[in-house]
């Protein structure tokens, strides 16, 4: 092998770029302090991006940082999936083998898709979160590796990047939170035309506040002069500098080329053609070296020596001599691993490639493909199938190209490079008709697809069908987030199926179309599901039939829950069991469990959801397991059992992280924030909301995040923030069909904000539109709070009547709904100026049995108001209620409630400071009073049980009841309330402690 020979064509002096280098060094310092850094370096070809990165990484290495370099690899017109990340991870593995192994522990099967050296890639189920799962695990891997050591991850030539690399880079830059990590990437700015695939990524990254952009400008005349001096090793003639600078226009690479040409006696402005300028050095080489250069140019960004030898078909000594001439002329360079060759600059490779004749290009690609087929070890194993597919495709041989391209699509899918899989499948569809019939007849669906739309045949023995390719491509597009492409393929497939007479295959494509319509925000997908149901009706049970029923039941659950949804879910479970589709069966059972809870079969529905959760974990079906850890707590929250929901949601967050499901993690955080809000743990809820916003990728998760932030902002009185968050949520949900779980909370907070800002007319308008839409079965968990929020507005008699009628239809099976019903009845009488303290007392009592301190404080405030307005002879009781409500509002930061309580106390001349109280006035039983006294004395549940001769479990129940009645979140806060209100004289507490 030959080593690169140092020549004067590269200046030993690093010219200019001082400001840019300072920016990079500043990023290195920030990263070393634990703040991840992201930089993007753009500039035209030849302007000096690579030299800047080399100078920076060499300095970073000297400072103790670990440098991991990776470049996007171009093969013909195709980029290798994840190539720069795979190369960089290999470099990290060489530098920090133990650290990387520890960071990857437990996730080797998934991470092996990027770094095969970690082991065999797993055969996990492919789904829409599969790519995000890999991305999340990669981001966390880098954070862990960079926890103790500063790491520089440099990715070059993004203009050649594949879609999967772009998606992963975007995810990485958006989600990095910790670690001593610098991520920088370079791209050729002059190549980014209007339709270049990198352009959308650049626009997206521009919106990141954490990213710094560097755009390298051309050299000034002075900088060009210093560069020429470095190349010539002497001070150049001013006229020569003027001529070179004028001809190069300050482009660093052209300055080098022109300076070397001048040094070797060529005219500075040899030609006006840039291509001719770049080919000057090639044409000066012996013919054998020129031939080698042409072979290398067509082989890709880098060509291995053994592969080059096989394609060149010349004696080894002759090949070595030709390579030596090309290296000495600084045309080619040996690769850093010493295993192959690349052009010193990609512009020269492109010029040489463009100079090839069409037939010459096809012949070279055929020779590359034949050499690689004869000896697959000529290239790295993880590049083999992709490069073979590219070589055969550009050799214009459909018979060879079709199976090679299909093999490459399978490899792309195994790496979760779904965008590349889609491109390759589109290429396969392009080749389909041109390939000979005997070649197509040897292909089998089982070898090339994971999606088998049933056609009544065995995929292991039946030839691959064109529609099989379309099905696989449609799913790949959906997984990759390229839904427009997936929709086009699906529409074309359905058009082909119009006269095909294959109802199950047609039904499968209609299900795909339904999912795509929803995700693109072009409707609810109901019509498409109806077409699918019609097609499978009367057919024998099948996986497609089970999926159609499950999807239909799920749609009805979200939009129009009722008997039809229940029946569809039951039938889906039965069909899935009959055909052995276990994942579909568990998904259908999950839908069934939710529908059971919504229909009032609370314990049976929850039991079904618990069973699905446990079975999906035991059978290792991650998607269902994580879903159930989100949906089961949601149903618990719906019926007021927030405390039970919290630990399951924490488990859901950890599960989603373990499996790398960021969107699912976002939903878990969102549901956790909702339960924490109910429990009065608002600061924790706020933190969970932040995690939803960081993690959520989908429209639903982002809309949920904004809705939750709006609820907190309204309750705390930050109306400007509430308005911003509601606008954001509206923007996310407007593109989707009406769904009560999204639109009813959004309407509730919109009404509450309008009332808070005095816009009662707007509040009435929102309420009227909501009442016109109605409350579908299963939406009562959202309907009760919405009607209560509306009661704070100045309502007409007609709207009051409509609220009363709507409430009459809502169920009150769960205790929390019963509490809401009593509250609403009391509000309706208050609106009619007939306040009823007894009804308010019932509402307060109902909430004292629940753990909803904010709702309890609000109903206590209303009860105090009713007592004072009706002249009831209970001033002490009203004062007590106001003090308790004020204490909770102050602790939560619920400013509007605190101000309302303060204003009422001022009007009633009730001071809200500490005073003597008794436990009875707080609604505590005698036993609960004894327990609170011991809690205030710092006793544990076990000590309380021993003191009072009860079981620890009973003591725990009493403590939970006390927390709910006092409207506090923990034992410490309960003790603080007792001390502040003087419930127990010091001597009583001292006696308790003495015992």
Description of the molecule:
- By secondary structure, the chain is mainly alpha-helical.
- The strands form three sheets. It has a five-stranded parallel β-sheet with strand order 2-5-6-1-7, sandwiched between helices. It has a three-stranded antiparallel β-sheet with strand order 8-10-9.
- The longest helix is centred in the middle third of the chain and has 18 residues, at about 640-660.
- Residues about 1-10, about 265-270 and about 985-995 have low confidence and may be disordered.
- Helix 32 packs antiparallel against helix 33.
Strand content: under 5%
CATH architecture of the domain at 18-215: 3-Layer(aba) Sandwich
Query: In CATH terms, what is the fold-level topology of the domain at 18-215?
Result: Rossmann fold
Strand order of the largest sheet: 2-5-6-1-7
Domain HTH luxR-type: 917-982
Keywords: ATP-binding, Nucleotide-binding
InterPro entries: AAA_16, P-loop_NTPase, Sig_transdc_resp-reg_C-effctor, TPR-like_helical_dom_sf, Tscrpt_reg_LuxR_C, WH-like_DNA-bd_sf
Protein name: AAA family ATPase
List the helices and strands and how they pair.
Blueprint: H1 18-32, E1 37-43, H2 49-62, E2 66-71, E3 74-75, E4 78-79, H3 83-95, H4 97-104, H5 108-111, H6 130-145, E5 151-156, H7 163-175, E6 181-188, H8 198-206, E7 211-215, H9 221-232, H10 238-248, H11 252-263, H12 274-283, H13 287-299, E8 303-304, H14 305-312, H15 316-328, E9 332-334, E10 340-343, H16 346-354, H17 358-374, H18 384-394, H19 398-414, H20 418-432, H21 437-441, H22 445-448, H23 466-480, H24 483-497, H25 503-519, H26 526-536, H27 543-559, H28 563-579, H29 582-598, H30 602-618, H31 622-638, H32 642-659, H33 662-678, H34 682-695, H35 699-716, H36 719-733, H37 740-756, H38 760-773, H39 780-790, H40 797-808, H41 815-831, H42 837-848, H43 853-869, H44 875-892, H45 895-907, H46 926-936, H47 941-948, H48 952-966, H49 971-980, H50 986-994
Parallel strand pairs: 1-6, 1-7, 2-5, 5-6
Antiparallel strand pairs: 3-4, 8-10, 9-10
Protein name: AAA family ATPase
Organism: Streptomyces vulcanius
Keywords: ATP-binding, Nucleotide-binding
